[in-house]
Design goal:
This protein is mainly alpha-helical. Helix content is about 70%, strand content about 0%. It contains 14 helices and no strands. Helix 1 packs antiparallel against helix 14 and helix 8 runs antiparallel to helix 11. About 20% of the residues are buried. Keywords: Cell membrane, Membrane, Transmembrane, Transmembrane helix, Transport. It is found in: Cell membrane. It is a multi-pass membrane protein. This is Carbohydrate ABC transporter permease.
């Protein structure tokens, strides 16, 4: 140690490392700020919908759409839930279609993706081409309608809504790409141990594909939850219960028709909460999905290195 108290020959601080740490901290905080602003931008529209749904129609006309209600009112929800039996039945139909369709569709998509990436499957390229071809061209609405109503005879049957959503070429391609990242040596080692193809798929491939299954399952579930078009085509109004999205669409359409009819007859219908009803139906339709999503989100960040390659 010299007279100034500095260590001679010792380890001296590295200014470059200090600058590197400071740069990483700045970049990290910049990322936090950008992501935070993006999250707020994503959250604001839903807060706007939620706040407007609890606002009176007259307040919406006067102040526009606001996050915080100027005049609190639940009149829109009272109209939406005017017939609790119908909306509860619609909820049960949609939940049933979503649960059953997601389970079956996820199983079929996973099996198809696994089979198409197997190197020892002879016709994998030809079948993959036919699946990809459907993403470019389709038969159209009229053949699809005739297939469901005339050949399959599924008019006014919930299967007409369930079956079309079971398979998606995009999801099959996604699953195929994910399963391809799993080493084929795992399958070969399991075959050496005497395991069959279905056993390998159930006990090895599926546990290692949890992130892909969660992502694809969420896509399928959202598709069934938001389904209204096929229900409108194949489920007649004579049925007791139809999917939730179609029921809410009919509620808003009926209110809009009443208001337009009253306007054409010079009758005041200012009490019909058309705008707030649209927001209330959006909250009713998206609320369960928002509550369910956090339970699935954790699987998106889970790794795929489950298990080991037998050496």
């Amino acid at each position: 140690m010299n007279a100034k108290g500095n260590v001679i020959g010792g380890n001296t601080p590295r200014p470059a490392r200090i600058r590197s740490d400071a740069s990483e901290t700045i970049v990290r905080w910049f990322g936090y700020i950008v992501i935070g602003i993006f999250a707020i931008c994503c959250l604001l529209p839903f807060l706007l919908i939620l706040g407007t749904s609890f606002t009176s129609e007259s307040s919406v006309k006067k102040f526009g759409f606001t996050i915080w209600p100027h005049e609190f009112s639940t009149f829109a929800y009272q109209i939406v839930f005017e017939n609790p039996k119908l909306i509860i039945g619609s909820y049960l139909v949609t939940i049933g279609l979503t649960v059953v369709g997601t389970i079956i569709g996820l199983f079929i998509v996973a099996m198809t993706g696994y089979a198409l990436q197997r190197p020892d499957f002879t016709y994998r390229n030809k079948i993959s081409f036919f699946i990809y071809f459907t993403t470019l061209f389709s038969g159209g609405l009229v053949p699809f309608y005739l297939l469901i109503t005339q050949y399959l005879e599924l008019k006014d049957n919930y299967l007409a809504v369930l079956l079309p959503g079971l398979l998606s070429p995009f999801l099959i391609i996604m699953m195929k790409s994910f399963v391809r990242s799993i080493p084929h040596a795992i399958t070969e080692s399991a075959k050496i141990d005497g395991a069959g193809d279905f056993t390998i798929f159930m006990r090895l491939i599926l546990p290692m594909s949890t992130p892909a299954l969660a992502t694809i399952g969420l896509f399928i579930a959202l598709g069934y939850w938001n389904e209204w078009y096929n229900a409108m085509l194949f489920l007649s109004p004579d049925m007791d219960y139809r999917p939730l999205q179609l029921f809410l669409y009919n509620v808003v359409t009926s209110a809009d028709f009443i208001r337009n009819s009253a306007a054409s007859s010079n009758v005041s219908m200012s009490d019909v909460p058309l705008e707030t009803m649209k927001m209330a139906t959006a909250v009713v339709a998206t609320g369960p999905v928002i509550l369910f999503y956090p339970f699935v989100q954790r699987y998106f960040i889970k790794g795929i290195t489950v298990g080991a390659v037998k050496g």
